[in-house]
Amino acid sequence: MNSLIRRGDFWAGLVLAGLGMHIVTQAWGWDYMTEEGPGPGFFPLWYGTVMVVLSLLLTIGAVLKKVPGSQSKQVSWGEMRRALTCWAALAMCVAILQYIGFMLSFGMLTLFIIAGMFRRPLKEALAYAVGGGMGFYALFSWALDLQLPVGSLFQQFL
Amino acid sequence: MKFSNLFCVLSVASLAGFGGLAQAQWKPTKTLEVIIHTAPGGGNDLLARAVAQIMEKEKLLPVRMQVVNKPGGNGAVAAAAIAEKKGESHTLGFITSAWIANPLTTSEAKVTVHDLLPVANLLRDPALFAVRADSPYKTLKDFIDAAKAKPGQLKQSGGSVTSRDNIIRNTLQASTGAKWVFVSFQGGGERLAALLGGHVDIMVIEPQEAGEQIRAGKLRVLAQIADKPLAAYPNVPTLKQAGFDVVATPQIRAVVAPQGMPKEALAYYEDLFLKLHLTPSWKKYVEDFMLEDAYSSGADLGKSIEVIEKDIRIQFQLAGMKLVR
Amino acid sequence: MDILNGLMQGFSVALTPMNLALCFLGCFLGTVVGVLPGLGPPATIAMLLPLTFKMDPTGAMIMLAGIYYGAKYGGSTTSILLNVPGETSSVVTCLDGYQLARKGRAGAALGISAVASFIAGTIGVLLLMLVAPPLAKLTLAFSSPEYFALMVLGLAMVVLLAGDSLTKALLSMTLGLWIASIGTDLFTATSRFTFGQTALLGGIEFVIVAIGIFAVGEVMANMEPEKPVEMLPVPKGLKNLLPTWQDMKDCKYAFLNGSLVGFFIGILPGAGATISSFLSYGLEKSYSKHPEKFGTGVIEGVAAPEGANNADTAGAMVPLLTLGIPGSGTTAILLAALVLWGFKPGPLFITESPALFWGLVASMYIGNVVLLILNLPLVALFAQLLKMPGYVMYPLILGVSIIGIYTSDSSIFQLGLLVLFGLVGYVMRKLDFPTAPLVLGLVLGDSMEKSLRQSLMMSQGDLSILLRPIPAALLGIAAFLLVVPLIKKFNATRVQMIDSEA
């Protein structure tokens, strides 16, 4: 069972089958064919069905693979942890962007990546964080006159 | 003039003068943002940029006017963006009739035109019924008769199903009993290409888009959708003149402001667009682009919106569309 | 001879110092705009429009057109170096371009992209000059049935882009088709898959999906090893800094392919530059001697789509100038600009405003040369950028991605979507789901559905409208493309089974 769970294809297939079912059920609620031509439900029904069929094929294929690790990718949590941490940092950066503005949130993200993920000295990370933020600001906000988010906390000072 | 009349005129004039002085006290102090619902190049985008240019030329505005594009959701995204600026004095929006029509069928549109304050109406877009030059229809009546004879066989190209093109089609179908198919195309260019290529039989097109094709003799105009004939098309019958006395829902282009805008700011902007409408640059713009100058003040705009919405509601119901509000 | 006269007149207009300067400025701005993801020609031209009112219209048009095709040159830079499509039509360049960079051949990829763009751009202008008016008829002959068949042909390419697992490629494609249908249905005003969100009513922007899946996904994948692998090997020696003669020879068909496919798809208002680059890429792969190498860093895989998206620009001028019909956001603004200056694009344009038309054509020739000269030295410059350590590049890419999305649609929701698609891209990478079919489904799905529904509306449900000559031919080619590899695969599997039983 363990090796099964580790089969990425298995899970991907299930998730996509789920999405496909959602698409098909939604499409069922719309008109398949109206008197003037195919309705909004026409296309989604078709590709939704294809999605369900193919993803079930994928899942079954993953289950039937007797030789472990032969064709489908093994899901290894170790390596993924770093990537997902980085993603979480990016998500945070975007979430707080509207409050503290681009420069600060980007600076923090840079700091996290350079110092946190790659263990470079803090001073170096700080230099890049500040330099990067200012660089982007100079290029976009000042030279190209494109608005970068300032952050609602600071808006009142403007 | 009788003395009492002169006195009235004088007192009104001085009051107006004082009133004007009081109003002139509020001026915008930072960039004026105008939010529109099309991407760069779309209808209101060009209008907004033209307005910005005219304002600068005629020195009507002490600050810069910045066009902010918020496309998406047929106006719903832009409407939401304007509503977010509640209470602000430096944000306006340019709307079209689509802002009135679309929320009727879209439940995701959380902000409707009723949540915004009317400032002024600027224009009405006239439109023409056009067919290819080699088509057998010489008048709109010819087309309608042919459609009655072959129901569902003739085709009109147009925009979305809630657009003015389709609304006028539904109106005519209801009043004449004819039936023809409406084929939606995303872009104006595609609609015109479909007509020129012979894939559809008729379309509703704006004079400015059609101008060149008509001049080159590729398109024939059957009727115009306007209250009075356009200067450029004096011989083309209006719908009424062609014998179709129907209510043609207008395509308006108007200015709105977010709720809660301070009274002085609102009054300033109303006055601003009144002045704009009187400038020679504006008149030239309207003439060059074959538009219909239909200025009305904020209060009148509010009333027109009610009337337009009522009409559109009836048309949608007749067409069997699902209304969500 | 009319043409020669016109061209002479055009050059006399284009070669004035003022117009030359404007051409140069436009090309330069265009390259910058192309390099920056999220900032595209439409927005830039719209911003510059007020400035042009004080200029001579011919010069202004030359400048704006320069921005248009300059952007196509620049778009490939970030595609190759950062796996970030700078322009939506450059997304196909990411497929092989980025892989070439990973092999240390970034310079060659950038160089061949500039060369292919030059050759295809020039051929495109040549065709524009020679056959513009008759082509107008071809443009009009294409309507929904023809577009539908074209999109089917495009989607048939998914088989060519499949790689190992056809199932996964098709699943990827259906995912793309689904994302394409999020939004308001044009024909019935029904909202589909919007999950109640106003922001989704207009659908999801292609740029967000592309940058999320390609750029952000790639950065995440690179986070895995503890020690940062050198971002991309810096090209060593002149051999890798510029394309070699061998490269040029390998690409000789790619140049032609890109020019013709790009131009002829370009003249169709309903088909965008992304479609021409996909079709050109797929075509190149289908007659290549080593199709399985596509996607791993094959030089023709960069030359073909890059050429196509440049020739597409020249093609797009045909309906714009001869019919007044714009085919894309950029051409719509160019049309608006022309109208604002008092010109009248339409059937009478070429005869009534020859100075502008021929001046524009001549400036496109000149522009292509200017861009080649501008871009080749930039190759060396950009290649040096690769010396940056990985841990500096990654935040840089993320920063550029965020800014790119924010400047084109300033909402946190869209940024949130970017982050979401970054995760999707990463997961797809880990699970070996090819990303190209998703992009293909996204780009073509919407068009295909609309064309099919329009066709059936035009024919009152009669499917035989799809068997008109042009659609029938295109559908035939698509069927051929679909069936042949499947037969090959079937045979290969059969042989494998027979072997394993032996």
The low-confidence runs of chain C, each spanning 5 or more residues with pLDDT under 50, are none
- Count the strands of chain A? 2
Largest interface: A-C, 64 and 60 residues
The 3D shape of chain A can be described as flat
% residues in beta strands of chain C: under 5%
Can you walk through the features of this model?
- With 158 residues, chain A is mostly helical.
- Chain A is built from six helices and two strands.
- In chain A, α2 runs antiparallel to α3.
- In chain B, β6, α6 and β7 form a beta-alpha-beta unit.
- About 2% of the residues of chain B have low confidence.
- Chain B is globular and about 65 Å long.
- With 502 residues, chain C is mostly helical.
- Chain C has one domain.
- A two-stranded antiparallel sheet of chain C has the order 1-2.
- Chains A and C meet through α2, β2, α3, α4 and α5 of A and α8, α9, α18, α19 and α20 of C.
Question: What are the main properties of this structure?
Answer:
heterotrimer; B: 325 residues; alpha/beta; D-Maltodextrin-Binding Protein, domain 2; 2 domains; six-stranded mixed β-sheet; five-stranded mixed β-sheet; 11 strands; C: 502 residues; mainly alpha; two-stranded antiparallel ribbon; 2 strands; 1% strand
What does the secondary structure layout of this molecule look like, with pairings?
The complex is a heterotrimer of chains A (158), B (325) and C (502).
Chain A: H1 2-5, H2 8-28, E1 33-34, E2 37-38, H3 42-64, H4 77-117, H5 122-143, H6 152-155
Antiparallel strand pairs in A: 1-2
Chain B: H1 3-23, E1 32-36, H2 43-57, E2 65-69, H3 76-84, E3 91-96, H4 98-105, E4 117-125, E5 127-132, H5 140-149, E6 155-158, H6 164-176, E7 181-184, H7 188-196, E8 202-205, H8 207-215, E9 219-225, E10 251-257, H9 263-278, H10 280-288, E11 292-297, H11 298-318
Parallel strand pairs in B: 1-2, 1-3, 6-7, 6-8
Antiparallel strand pairs in B: 3-10, 4-10, 4-11, 5-8, 5-9
Helix pairs in contact in B: 6-11
Chain C: H1 2-14, H2 17-35, H3 41-52, H4 57-82, H5 91-102, H6 106-141, H7 144-160, H8 166-180, E1 183-184, E2 191-192, H9 206-222, H10 237-241, H11 245-250, H12 252-266, H13 273-286, H14 300-323, H15 329-340, H16 349-352, H17 354-385, H18 390-408, H19 412-430, H20 436-458, H21 469-501
Antiparallel strand pairs in C: 1-2
Helix pairs in contact in C: 1-17, 2-4, 2-17, 3-4, 3-15, 4-5, 4-6, 4-14, 4-15, 4-17, 5-6, 5-14, 6-12, 6-14, 6-17, 7-13, 7-20, 7-21, 8-20, 9-18, 9-19, 12-13, 12-14, 13-14, 18-19
